[in-house]
Design brief:
The chain has 375 residues and is an alpha+beta fold. 37% of the residues lie in helices and 23% in strands. The chain is globular, with a radius of gyration of 21 Å. Bound molecules: (3R)-3-hydroxy-3-methyl-5-(phosphonooxy)pentanoic acid (PMV). (3R)-3-hydroxy-3-methyl-5-(phosphonooxy)pentanoic acid binds at residues 41, 44-46, 58, 135, 137, 177-179, 235, 285, 326-327.
Length: 375
Protein backbone atom coordinates (compact mmCIF):
# COMPACT_ATOMS: atom_id res chain seq x y z
CA UNK A 1 0.00 0.00 0.00
CA UNK A 2 1.26 3.52 -0.84
CA UNK A 3 2.22 5.48 2.27
CA UNK A 4 0.38 8.80 2.82
CA UNK A 5 2.52 11.89 2.12
CA UNK A 6 3.06 13.47 5.58
CA UNK A 7 2.99 16.92 3.97
CA UNK A 8 -0.37 16.41 2.30
CA UNK A 9 -2.57 14.70 4.88
CA UNK A 10 -4.44 17.83 6.03
CA UNK A 11 -4.08 19.42 2.60
CA UNK A 12 -5.97 16.49 1.02
CA UNK A 13 -8.52 16.40 3.83
CA UNK A 14 -9.34 20.13 3.58
CA UNK A 15 -9.46 20.05 -0.24
CA UNK A 16 -11.91 17.14 -0.19
CA UNK A 17 -14.07 18.99 2.29
CA UNK A 18 -14.01 22.08 0.07
CA UNK A 19 -15.23 20.03 -2.90
CA UNK A 20 -18.07 18.56 -0.82
CA UNK A 21 -19.09 22.01 0.40
CA UNK A 22 -19.05 23.91 -2.86
CA UNK A 23 -22.86 24.35 -3.04
CA UNK A 24 -24.96 27.50 -2.66
CA UNK A 25 -24.02 29.74 0.29
CA UNK A 26 -26.41 29.62 3.25
CA UNK A 27 -25.70 33.22 4.22
CA UNK A 28 -25.30 36.26 1.96
CA UNK A 29 -23.73 38.55 4.52
CA UNK A 30 -22.40 38.41 8.04
CA UNK A 31 -19.61 39.35 10.38
CA UNK A 32 -16.88 37.36 12.15
CA UNK A 33 -14.04 38.43 14.42
CA UNK A 34 -11.15 36.98 16.40
CA UNK A 35 -8.53 38.28 18.78
CA UNK A 36 -5.42 36.14 18.42
CA UNK A 37 -2.11 36.30 20.28
CA UNK A 38 1.50 36.56 19.24
CA UNK A 39 3.75 33.76 20.49
CA UNK A 40 7.37 33.41 21.53
CA UNK A 41 9.38 30.44 20.32
CA UNK A 42 11.59 28.58 22.81
CA UNK A 43 12.88 26.24 20.10
CA UNK A 44 13.08 28.32 16.94
CA UNK A 45 11.78 27.79 13.44
CA UNK A 46 14.42 29.14 11.06
CA UNK A 47 14.57 27.73 7.55
CA UNK A 48 11.74 26.38 5.42
CA UNK A 49 11.09 24.42 2.26
CA UNK A 50 8.24 23.41 -0.05
CA UNK A 51 4.83 24.78 0.75
CA UNK A 52 5.81 26.65 3.93
CA UNK A 53 7.11 23.53 5.69
CA UNK A 54 9.67 24.12 8.45
CA UNK A 55 13.03 22.35 8.28
CA UNK A 56 12.81 21.54 12.00
CA UNK A 57 10.05 21.31 14.59
CA UNK A 58 9.58 24.37 16.84
CA UNK A 59 7.94 24.98 20.20
CA UNK A 60 6.46 28.20 21.59
CA UNK A 61 3.97 29.59 24.03
CA UNK A 62 1.20 32.01 23.17
CA UNK A 63 1.28 35.42 24.79
CA UNK A 64 -1.59 36.95 26.68
CA UNK A 65 -1.68 40.69 25.92
CA UNK A 66 0.15 41.05 22.60
CA UNK A 67 -2.70 40.37 20.17
CA UNK A 68 -4.24 41.25 16.85
CA UNK A 69 -8.00 41.79 16.67
CA UNK A 70 -9.45 41.20 13.23
CA UNK A 71 -13.06 41.52 12.07
CA UNK A 72 -14.46 40.68 8.66
CA UNK A 73 -17.80 41.90 7.32
CA UNK A 74 -18.67 39.91 4.25
CA UNK A 75 -21.20 40.34 1.45
CA UNK A 76 -22.18 37.99 -1.40
CA UNK A 77 -21.54 39.14 -4.93
CA UNK A 78 -22.82 37.32 -8.04
CA UNK A 79 -19.53 38.20 -9.69
CA UNK A 80 -17.29 35.22 -8.96
CA UNK A 81 -13.92 36.88 -9.63
CA UNK A 82 -13.29 37.45 -5.91
CA UNK A 83 -12.41 37.47 -3.17
CA UNK A 84 -12.33 41.25 -3.31
CA UNK A 85 -11.28 43.10 -0.19
CA UNK A 86 -11.03 46.44 1.57
CA UNK A 87 -8.46 46.35 4.33
CA UNK A 88 -8.13 48.78 7.24
CA UNK A 89 -5.39 48.68 9.82
CA UNK A 90 -6.17 50.72 12.91
CA UNK A 91 -8.90 52.45 10.85
CA UNK A 92 -6.59 53.50 7.98
CA UNK A 93 -6.34 51.84 4.61
CA UNK A 94 -2.97 50.15 4.06
CA UNK A 95 -2.39 49.28 0.39
CA UNK A 96 0.75 47.19 1.08
CA UNK A 97 -1.01 45.03 3.73
CA UNK A 98 -4.08 44.82 1.50
CA UNK A 99 -1.97 43.41 -1.30
CA UNK A 100 -0.38 40.83 1.01
CA UNK A 101 -3.80 39.74 2.30
CA UNK A 102 -5.21 39.51 -1.23
CA UNK A 103 -2.32 37.26 -2.22
CA UNK A 104 -2.88 35.14 0.88
CA UNK A 105 -6.63 34.78 0.24
CA UNK A 106 -5.93 33.64 -3.30
CA UNK A 107 -3.48 31.11 -1.92
CA UNK A 108 -6.11 29.57 0.38
CA UNK A 109 -8.94 29.86 -2.18
CA UNK A 110 -8.77 26.13 -3.15
CA UNK A 111 -9.72 25.28 0.47
CA UNK A 112 -12.47 27.93 0.63
CA UNK A 113 -13.98 28.16 -2.88
CA UNK A 114 -16.97 30.15 -1.55
CA UNK A 115 -14.59 33.12 -1.11
CA UNK A 116 -14.60 33.88 -4.84
CA UNK A 117 -18.18 35.15 -4.54
CA UNK A 118 -17.60 37.42 -1.58
CA UNK A 119 -16.45 40.94 -0.86
CA UNK A 120 -14.62 41.23 2.49
CA UNK A 121 -14.25 44.37 4.55
CA UNK A 122 -11.38 43.50 6.89
CA UNK A 123 -10.46 45.68 9.88
CA UNK A 124 -7.53 44.86 12.07
CA UNK A 125 -5.75 46.36 15.05
CA UNK A 126 -2.94 45.36 17.39
CA UNK A 127 -3.12 45.64 21.16
CA UNK A 128 0.59 46.45 21.22
CA UNK A 129 2.04 49.61 19.67
CA UNK A 130 2.66 49.07 15.97
CA UNK A 131 6.18 50.43 16.31
CA UNK A 132 7.10 48.24 19.29
CA UNK A 133 9.14 45.85 17.16
CA UNK A 134 6.91 42.91 18.20
CA UNK A 135 6.50 40.55 15.27
CA UNK A 136 2.83 40.84 14.42
CA UNK A 137 2.71 38.24 11.64
CA UNK A 138 1.88 35.38 14.06
CA UNK A 139 -1.01 37.25 15.68
CA UNK A 140 -2.31 38.86 12.49
CA UNK A 141 -2.18 35.78 10.26
CA UNK A 142 -3.71 33.53 12.93
CA UNK A 143 -6.52 36.07 13.56
CA UNK A 144 -7.20 36.24 9.82
CA UNK A 145 -7.14 32.45 9.39
CA UNK A 146 -9.54 31.99 12.34
CA UNK A 147 -11.90 34.58 10.79
CA UNK A 148 -11.92 32.77 7.43
CA UNK A 149 -12.63 29.43 9.16
CA UNK A 150 -15.53 31.08 11.05
CA UNK A 151 -16.84 32.51 7.77
CA UNK A 152 -16.79 29.01 6.33
CA UNK A 153 -18.86 27.72 9.24
CA UNK A 154 -21.45 30.48 8.72
CA UNK A 155 -21.59 30.42 4.92
CA UNK A 156 -21.28 26.69 4.25
CA UNK A 157 -22.96 25.68 7.48
CA UNK A 158 -20.24 23.18 8.28
CA UNK A 159 -19.87 22.18 11.90
CA UNK A 160 -16.67 20.78 13.34
CA UNK A 161 -15.37 20.09 16.83
CA UNK A 162 -13.41 22.90 18.44
CA UNK A 163 -10.23 20.92 18.01
CA UNK A 164 -10.84 20.28 14.28
CA UNK A 165 -11.68 23.95 13.82
CA UNK A 166 -8.37 24.94 15.45
CA UNK A 167 -6.41 22.41 13.37
CA UNK A 168 -7.83 23.86 10.19
CA UNK A 169 -7.12 27.41 11.40
CA UNK A 170 -3.55 26.37 12.26
CA UNK A 171 -3.05 24.91 8.77
CA UNK A 172 -4.40 28.08 7.12
CA UNK A 173 -2.41 30.38 9.46
CA UNK A 174 0.77 28.46 8.55
CA UNK A 175 0.27 29.31 4.88
CA UNK A 176 0.32 33.01 5.88
CA UNK A 177 3.25 32.84 8.31
CA UNK A 178 4.83 29.67 9.71
CA UNK A 179 4.92 30.81 13.33
CA UNK A 180 1.23 31.84 13.12
CA UNK A 181 0.30 28.12 13.02
CA UNK A 182 1.25 27.94 16.74
CA UNK A 183 -0.82 30.98 17.80
CA UNK A 184 -4.21 29.26 17.47
CA UNK A 185 -3.53 27.32 20.70
CA UNK A 186 -3.26 28.48 24.29
CA UNK A 187 -0.08 27.83 26.34
CA UNK A 188 2.55 25.66 24.60
CA UNK A 189 2.33 24.48 20.99
CA UNK A 190 4.58 22.46 18.69
CA UNK A 191 4.72 22.86 14.94
CA UNK A 192 6.57 20.21 12.94
CA UNK A 193 6.69 16.45 13.07
CA UNK A 194 8.61 14.98 15.96
CA UNK A 195 8.47 11.52 17.49
CA UNK A 196 8.28 13.02 21.00
CA UNK A 197 4.92 14.74 20.47
CA UNK A 198 1.96 12.52 19.67
CA UNK A 199 0.10 13.58 16.48
CA UNK A 200 2.57 16.38 15.73
CA UNK A 201 2.62 17.42 12.11
CA UNK A 202 4.56 19.47 9.57
CA UNK A 203 1.26 20.90 8.32
CA UNK A 204 -0.27 22.15 11.57
CA UNK A 205 0.75 23.04 15.11
CA UNK A 206 -0.63 20.97 18.00
CA UNK A 207 -0.88 21.62 21.74
CA UNK A 208 1.38 19.59 24.02
CA UNK A 209 -0.41 16.31 24.65
CA UNK A 210 0.64 16.00 28.32
CA UNK A 211 0.34 17.97 31.53
CA UNK A 212 3.17 20.50 31.70
CA UNK A 213 4.98 20.69 35.05
CA UNK A 214 3.57 23.45 37.31
CA UNK A 215 7.08 24.99 37.22
CA UNK A 216 6.19 26.25 33.73
CA UNK A 217 2.53 27.18 34.12
CA UNK A 218 2.03 30.95 33.83
CA UNK A 219 5.50 31.80 32.57
CA UNK A 220 5.94 35.55 32.29
CA UNK A 221 7.47 37.32 29.28
CA UNK A 222 8.59 40.92 29.78
CA UNK A 223 9.34 42.18 26.31
CA UNK A 224 12.14 44.75 26.46
CA UNK A 225 11.85 47.00 23.41
CA UNK A 226 15.37 47.84 22.28
CA UNK A 227 14.46 48.73 18.73
CA UNK A 228 11.08 49.85 17.41
CA UNK A 229 12.09 50.48 13.81
CA UNK A 230 11.17 48.38 10.74
CA UNK A 231 12.92 45.03 10.30
CA UNK A 232 16.14 45.20 8.29
CA UNK A 233 15.39 41.81 6.79
CA UNK A 234 11.95 40.29 6.21
CA UNK A 235 11.07 36.94 7.72
CA UNK A 236 10.92 35.19 4.34
CA UNK A 237 14.31 36.55 3.30
CA UNK A 238 15.62 35.44 6.70
CA UNK A 239 14.39 31.87 6.22
CA UNK A 240 15.81 31.89 2.68
CA UNK A 241 19.28 32.58 4.11
CA UNK A 242 19.20 29.01 5.46
CA UNK A 243 18.95 27.53 1.96
CA UNK A 244 22.68 27.82 1.30
CA UNK A 245 23.80 28.12 4.89
CA UNK A 246 26.94 26.07 5.63
CA UNK A 247 25.60 25.09 9.08
CA UNK A 248 22.02 24.33 7.99
CA UNK A 249 22.03 20.54 8.38
CA UNK A 250 23.75 20.70 11.77
CA UNK A 251 21.28 23.35 12.91
CA UNK A 252 18.28 21.19 12.00
CA UNK A 253 19.77 18.25 13.92
CA UNK A 254 20.53 20.40 16.98
CA UNK A 255 17.04 21.93 16.86
CA UNK A 256 15.48 18.45 16.82
CA UNK A 257 17.55 17.40 19.77
CA UNK A 258 16.77 20.67 21.62
CA UNK A 259 13.09 20.14 20.99
CA UNK A 260 13.26 16.64 22.47
CA UNK A 261 15.08 17.99 25.53
CA UNK A 262 12.66 20.91 25.88
CA UNK A 263 9.64 18.58 25.79
CA UNK A 264 11.29 16.48 28.51
CA UNK A 265 11.98 19.59 30.63
CA UNK A 266 8.41 20.83 30.33
CA UNK A 267 7.16 17.45 31.48
CA UNK A 268 9.55 16.91 34.38
CA UNK A 269 10.02 20.52 35.50
CA UNK A 270 13.81 20.88 35.19
CA UNK A 271 14.12 24.64 35.16
CA UNK A 272 17.94 24.86 34.90
CA UNK A 273 18.00 22.80 31.75
CA UNK A 274 15.11 24.90 30.38
CA UNK A 275 17.18 28.07 30.87
CA UNK A 276 20.17 26.56 29.10
CA UNK A 277 18.09 25.42 26.14
CA UNK A 278 16.13 28.66 25.78
CA UNK A 279 19.21 30.88 25.80
CA UNK A 280 21.17 28.58 23.53
CA UNK A 281 18.31 28.56 20.98
CA UNK A 282 18.16 32.37 21.00
CA UNK A 283 21.90 32.76 20.55
CA UNK A 284 22.05 30.07 17.90
CA UNK A 285 19.34 31.84 15.89
CA UNK A 286 21.45 34.98 15.86
CA UNK A 287 24.62 32.96 15.26
CA UNK A 288 22.96 31.59 12.13
CA UNK A 289 21.85 35.04 11.03
CA UNK A 290 25.31 36.54 11.56
CA UNK A 291 27.01 33.69 9.69
CA UNK A 292 24.57 33.84 6.74
CA UNK A 293 25.52 35.31 3.43
CA UNK A 294 25.23 39.08 3.97
CA UNK A 295 26.32 38.79 7.61
CA UNK A 296 23.24 40.42 9.13
CA UNK A 297 23.53 41.72 12.68
CA UNK A 298 20.03 42.20 14.08
CA UNK A 299 20.94 42.67 17.72
CA UNK A 300 22.07 46.04 19.12
CA UNK A 301 24.67 46.87 21.80
CA UNK A 302 21.73 47.31 24.23
CA UNK A 303 20.59 43.75 23.49
CA UNK A 304 23.96 42.46 24.70
CA UNK A 305 23.93 44.76 27.74
CA UNK A 306 20.52 43.37 28.73
CA UNK A 307 21.65 39.77 28.19
CA UNK A 308 24.66 40.29 30.44
CA UNK A 309 22.48 41.91 33.11
CA UNK A 310 19.97 39.06 32.99
CA UNK A 311 22.72 36.49 33.50
CA UNK A 312 24.20 38.58 36.31
CA UNK A 313 20.82 38.84 38.05
CA UNK A 314 20.31 35.08 37.76
CA UNK A 315 23.71 34.27 39.23
CA UNK A 316 23.94 37.00 41.85
CA UNK A 317 20.37 37.62 42.95
CA UNK A 318 19.12 34.07 42.56
CA UNK A 319 16.08 35.10 40.48
CA UNK A 320 15.51 32.48 37.75
CA UNK A 321 15.25 34.88 34.80
CA UNK A 322 16.40 33.93 31.32
CA UNK A 323 16.17 35.49 27.88
CA UNK A 324 15.13 34.65 24.39
CA UNK A 325 15.20 36.66 21.16
CA UNK A 326 13.19 36.82 17.96
CA UNK A 327 14.82 37.76 14.69
CA UNK A 328 15.38 41.29 15.99
CA UNK A 329 16.99 43.31 18.78
CA UNK A 330 14.28 43.05 21.45
CA UNK A 331 14.79 40.83 24.45
CA UNK A 332 12.10 38.55 25.88
CA UNK A 333 12.75 38.16 29.59
CA UNK A 334 11.21 34.89 30.79
CA UNK A 335 10.56 33.83 34.40
CA UNK A 336 8.00 32.04 36.59
CA UNK A 337 5.08 34.25 37.62
CA UNK A 338 5.83 34.04 41.33
CA UNK A 339 8.87 36.30 40.79
CA UNK A 340 6.84 39.02 39.03
CA UNK A 341 7.08 41.67 41.74
CA UNK A 342 10.87 41.45 42.05
CA UNK A 343 11.42 41.26 38.30
CA UNK A 344 9.18 44.28 37.65
CA UNK A 345 11.31 46.30 40.03
CA UNK A 346 14.53 45.15 38.36
CA UNK A 347 13.15 45.92 34.89
CA UNK A 348 12.10 49.40 35.98
CA UNK A 349 15.30 50.26 37.80
CA UNK A 350 17.97 48.38 35.82
CA UNK A 351 16.76 47.43 32.36
CA UNK A 352 14.53 50.15 30.92
CA UNK A 353 17.60 52.37 30.50
CA UNK A 354 18.56 50.07 27.61
CA UNK A 355 15.06 50.16 26.07
CA UNK A 356 14.00 52.57 23.34
CA UNK A 357 12.16 55.37 25.14
CA UNK A 358 12.00 53.08 28.19
CA UNK A 359 9.40 50.86 26.47
CA UNK A 360 8.62 47.35 27.69
CA UNK A 361 5.54 45.11 27.69
CA UNK A 362 4.63 43.14 30.77
CA UNK A 363 3.26 40.04 29.05
CA UNK A 364 3.10 36.34 29.80
CA UNK A 365 1.62 33.03 28.80
CA UNK A 366 -1.94 33.36 27.54
CA UNK A 367 -5.17 31.52 27.02
CA UNK A 368 -5.13 31.57 23.21
CA UNK A 369 -7.45 33.16 20.65
CA UNK A 370 -10.88 34.54 21.58
CA UNK A 371 -13.85 34.87 19.26
CA UNK A 372 -15.04 38.48 19.42
CA UNK A 373 -17.78 38.60 16.75
CA UNK A 374 -20.08 36.01 15.21
CA UNK A 375 -23.29 37.15 13.56
O1 LIG B 1 6.64 32.90 10.97
P1 LIG B 1 7.79 33.70 10.50
O2 LIG B 1 8.05 33.49 9.04
O3 LIG B 1 7.62 35.16 10.85
O4 LIG B 1 9.13 33.19 11.25
C1 LIG B 1 9.34 33.30 12.61
C2 LIG B 1 10.75 33.06 12.96
C3 LIG B 1 11.15 33.27 14.41
O5 LIG B 1 10.29 34.17 15.06
C4 LIG B 1 12.56 33.83 14.44
C5 LIG B 1 11.21 31.95 15.18
C6 LIG B 1 9.88 31.31 15.52
O6 LIG B 1 9.85 30.08 15.59
O7 LIG B 1 8.91 32.04 15.81
Amino acid sequence: MKEADPHRFYHDRFLKKAQRNSGKPRLMHGKVGWSSPSNIALVKYWGKCGDQIACNPSLSFSLDLSRTKTEIEYEYSSNDSGPSIDFFFEKDSKPDFEQRISKYLNRILPYFPFLKNFHLRISSENTFPHSSGIASSASSMSALALCICSMEQQIVGSVSSQSDFKKKASFMARLGSGSASRSVWDNFAVWGRTEVVFRSSDEIAVPLPFKVSPVFSNLKDSVLIVDDGPKIISSSSGHALMNDHPFAETRYQVARSNLNSMVRCLENGSYDEFVELVESEALMLHGLIVSSEGGYILIKPETLEIIEKIRWIRTNKGIPVCFTLDAGANVHLLYPEKHSRKVRKIVETELTDYCKNGQWIDDGMGSGPREITNR
